[in-house]
Amino acid sequence: MTRPRQILALGGGGFSMEAGNALLDDYALSLTGAECPKVCFLPTASGDADHYIVRFYRAFPAGRSRPSHISLFRRDGGATDLAAHLLAQDLVYVGGGSVISLLGTWSAHGVDLMLRAAWEAGVVMTGLSAGSLCWFDHGMTAFHGESTPVRGMGFLPFSNAVHYDDKPERRAAFLAAIADGLPAGYGTGDGAALHFVGTALAEVVASREKARAYHVTPEGAEVTENELATRFLGAPLAVEPALAA
Amino acid sequence: LPPDGRRTPTILAMGGGGFTAGPADPALDDLVLELAGTPRPRVCLLPTAGGDSEHQIRRYYETFGDRLCEPTHISLFRLGRHPVPLREHLLSQDAIYVGGGSMVNLLAIWKAQGLDLILKEAWEAGILLAGLSAGSMCWFEWGITTSSGRAAPAPGLGFLPGSNSVHHDSEPDRRPVYLEAVKNGAIPPGYAADDGAALIFHGASLHEVVTARDDARAYEVTEDGERALEHRPLAQPKAAAATVPAVAELRRLRLARLAD
Q: Which residues of B touch A (CB under 8 A)?
C-alpha cells in the first residue's frame, strides 16, 4: 500500500505555542493513520534547545505516540542511521526558530535529502514557523530583522508566510514580495494549518475559531489575497469539511 | 598598536579547556584578554557550534564578567527576539571567542548567514579570533570533527593553511583518524592540541604554543607522524580577580545596564 505525500504546515501553534490546546498536534498524528504513530522531533531551528526537546516529549508521551528526536548538535555517541530513522517514522515534526540556520544545518548533514525521501515514502511532515516555511519554495522570515523571503526546500511549489496575523508588517512584506515576483502562496495565521496532499492544498484546519489562512496571488501588477475556508478542529463536524478553492 | 595603526591578524586556537571545560583553565581565559590588546577589551562570544546553548553562554558571562572586559554574545538562533547588527557588532570587537560544539553545524550556519565573510574581515582588521575545539578547527583548511558521531575530516574556513585537531589527549577517537588522514594525503599536515594547550598564529604562521596544564602539549602532524612542539607554560593566575575594585565597578555598571 502506498501512502500519499502529506505536509501539515502550521502558521504557528501546536505544543510550541498553544499549551493546553492539542488540536493541531492531534490532527497531525491522525493524518498518519497509525494507531500509535512514530513521531520524530527535529529541534534544529532552535539549536536543539534542551527545554524544547523536553516540551516535545511532554506533548507526545508514550501511549499517545512513539516519540524520538534527532539532535544535530549532539550526535557524539549516538551515531544512528538518520536516513533510516526518518524513513521509519509516521510523522516528522519540525520545531520553530531560525529557518536560515535550520536549512544550513540540514543541508550540511544531508537531512534535506533524507526528508524528501521520507516525504515521498508517505511519512507525514509537519512543523510550525521555521518548521513550516522550510517545505516551500520560498518562505518569509522576520527572524533576522525585517521580513524577507528565503529559499526553502521546495517540496511545495509555493511561497509561505507564517504568524500572518501577528503583525501588520508581515502581511505587507509578503504582499510586496509577491508583487515583486515571489511565487503565489499562502499567508497562515497562528492556530491555522495548511494540509497538503501531494502538492495540492486539501484543507485548512484550525485550533482556534478565529484562525485564518489566505491564498495570495499576483494578478498583473496587483496582488490578491483570498481568505480560505477553514475548519475549526474543536467543533463537531456538521457537514463535510469544506475544501479550499 | 604598531605605528601604522594596524594590529597583526591573530588567531588563538585552543585544543580544549578554558571557561567551557570542566576543570577551567583561567590562564587561557586571561590570555584571550591579553591578546585582545586593549586595557578593557570588547569580547564577543559566538556560541553557534553548541546551538547557542544557555549553559555555554552562562559560563562565559560567569568567567568574563569577573574580568576587565566588555563581554557580549551573539545568539544566531535567537536573533528573532534579540536582533543584533552582525557585521557592525563583530567589527567593533577586540576579540571574538568561538565556543565548542559541532564544527559542521557551525560552518553551515555561519555560511548561511554570511558570518564567514564578516569574520575574515574582522581577522584582517586585527580583531583577535579565539576559540576552542570546533572554534579552533574552524579557522584551518581542515579539522577532525565528530559532528556526525564519529571522527572524520571536515573542511574549515581556511584562514589558516593546513589542518587542526583538538582534544588530542582526551578524545582517543580523533588522534588515529587525524594521523591517518594526514599520512595518506586526504588532508594537509597541521597541528594537534591537547586540552589546555593553545596555538597562537600571527598571520598564517604559528607564532607560539602556550599551555595552561602541566602535561598539555601541541604537536606538529605530518605524513611522518607527530612531533611535540616547544611550548611556554602560562603562569597560573590568582583567583582573586573579583576583588579588584574596577571589576566590581564594571559589574555594577553592567547590572544597571541590564536592568534598563
A: 49-54, 76-77, 79-80, 83, 101-102, 104-105, 107-109, 111-113, 146-150
Count CB neighbours of B243 within 10 A: 10
Tens digit of each residue's pLDDT (9 = 90 or more) over B87-133: 999 999 999 999 999 999 999 999 999 999 999 999 999 999 999 99
List alpha helices for chain A, DSSP H: 23-31, 50-59, 82-87, 99-109, 111-120, 130-133, 168-179
Could you tell me what percentage of chain A is helix, strand and coil, using 3-state DSSP and rounding each to the nearest 5?
A: 30, 30, 40
3-state class (DSSP) for residue A29: helix
**Residue in this structure with the C-alpha cell 509516521, named with its chain if needed:** A90
Own/partner contacts of B3-7, CB < 8 Å, gap of 24 or more, are B6/B125, B6/B126, B7/B37, B7/B125, B7/B126, B7/B127
Give A 89-128 residues with CB within 8 A of chain B.
97-98, 100-101, 103-105, 107-109
Distance CA A86, CA A123 (A): 8
Do A105 and B77 make contact, defined as CB atoms within 8 angstroms?
no
Note the ipTM here.
Answer: 0.83
Element (H, E) at B183: helix B174-183
Mean pLDDT of A190-194: 97
Strands across the sheet containing A192-197 = A66-69, A38-42, A91-94, A124-128, A6-10, A192-197, A200-206, A231-232
The pTM of the whole model exceeds 0.90: no
CA distances from B105 to A47, A114, A129, B156 (A): 10, 17, 21, 11
**Residue B158 β-bridge partners:** none
Whether B150 sits inside 8 A of A73 (CB atoms) is no
Q: List helix spans (H) across A139-244.
A: 168-179
Q: Give the separation between CA A154 and CA A144, rounded to whole angstroms.
A: 21
Cα separation, B231 vs B253, in Å, equals 39
Say if residues A202 and A195 touch (Cβ distance below 8 Å): yes
Q: Which three cell numbers stand for residue A121?
A: 515514502
